[in-house]
Amino acid sequence: MSNQIVQGILLGGYYALIACGLSFMFSVMRIINLAHGSLAVLSAFALWLLASRFHIPPFYGLAIVLPLMAVIGWALQRFLLERSARGGALLPILTTFGLAIVIDNFLFEQFGADTRSLAPFIGSLSYDSWEWPGSIYVGKLAVIIFVAAVILLGGLQLFLTRTGLGRSIRATSEDPDTAGLVGVDARRANAVAAAIAMVTVGLAGAFLGMRATFDPYAGATQLLFAFEAAVIGGAGSLWSTLIGGIVLALAQTLGAKVHPQGFLIGGHVAFLIVLFIRLYTSGLGLRGLLRLSTGKAS
Amino acid sequence: MSTASPVIERGTAASRIAGLGVAAIIVLLAVAPQFLSAGAVDRMTALFIYVILAAMWNALAGYGGLVSVGQQVFFGLGAYFAIRLANAGLNPFVSLFVAAVIVGAVSWPISLFMLRLKNGEFAIGMWVIAALAHLLVNLDRLIQGETGTSLISLNVYDASTRRLTIYWLALASMTALLAVLFGLLRGSTGAAIRAIRDNEDAAASVGVRVTGTKRLLFVLAAFGIGIAGALWLASATTFQPKTYFSVQWTAYMIFMVLVGGIGTFEGAILGALLFFLIETWFGGTGVWYLIGLGATALAFSLLLPRGLWGTVEERFGWRLLSVGYRVRLASGTAGPTGETALPASITTHREKA
pTM, whole model, 2 decimals? Predict the structure, then answer.
């Protein structure tokens, strides 16, 4: 049992990784990007293409894919989200949903229905493990993903609190008009935030491909995981996203123990229970569930 | 300077003619199977189901301001409950409608919960509900997981009786649902619904029961989509959870409503017609067809968010099935924006419905 708890906590690192981009974008721009999961799968396919066609190992491939994801994020904000956000809060949902359909089916057209994995391209890392006291075996890859999530969340927190650009993103997320008055370029801040969010999505896609399999329509599931982890973690700091990811993963582990098909059900049920508690105890629904306080509480 | 007071009217000459036209079309559709091939009857049944889906998603998103990407949950549950009821011995045609009533009843507790979420959170929260419902239906032994099952009890009817009955049931369901929606929008609830659509906070401040009205739309949409799912099951006979709980149904609904015109009664019908034609012509191209649908929805949301009908309505002031009021100023009076000397025949398009 303790073995499963450890595995669950490590899996939570992956969920935190894929969730942080979603809640980060929502905090700054008030947009839930429904193409979030599809973009992660796009990144996984890009790495797979580089590895299988050009023999570039995934960890080196990240040097190409992550900058590309940043460009995609920037372009997404400038050409799609900025424009559709002007039409009200509902339009970006439709825009990003349309984008998700285009990405999913484009990937299907290019790569077919086969499930792929990046595991064959990372050598022994995909199955190597360390033995911890109490004969618990932890996969090296799972630990790497967890550590990457912690570093990323910490780095993002530092960036937002310590750098000028981070502060201007926070100012824009608090109040774009007032931020504009004091000389913050809200358009630039939003575009940078979208680029950063997409880099985290790219990284999440890479780890998705390494630790599991993916296919062109895998994006929807990843989007739901990201959303659930972000909502369970709730409005706190970026660190609460990590807690949310761990709770989600533990609920799934528990679900799988109860019933062979219970893995996903466990996660969804945990999400609904947390949602129920939060809606009826604190009325957070009114302010938005995903809203992070992106900086130190003042 | 104004001598004649403005006239408030509920429709135009065109909308009265359109009303008669709609009645004529429904009569024509009812007798159409006499002249149509079996394949054409099936396609027309599909069209009616698309109109239901578009109108119901439009009621929710266009009027209630609730964009859901999980509406496939009610489509799937409509089919699932129909299977369950028919399996329990109920007449298959009756079970289609009882199933939809159950879906409507199930949507009530869901609404208590989900309507507290806003915008994107509601949208994706509904997706989680759909995913969960799909997984739970898979656990039912009758369904045999993703293998699925079929509505076997329909086999006691011969093929042509079955086809015609489903056609008429679909036509009747579509007509009834559109009539209910039309009546709702034209009545006093309609004023509340349009107020919420235009500005939720302002509507609440003048005493509109925002949550109650939204709940009404949510349950209506669930019920209607439940009927659509059950009818789809009747015409396809096989039930595979993956197909019925697919997010593709919501993608279709969004496409139809976005292209036709979100928040306009006629727009949803126009969108369903266009979708039907596009599917007929390009459905065979497989994945490119789906890419095209997604790209079109994307383009409309960016460039023409009011959709085809919304744009036409705004530019020419057309009203066919008028659900709102409009103010026509008598000749020579000042327009509401302060511009004077409007030509005699110009009507201001203040109404937004």
Answer: 0.87
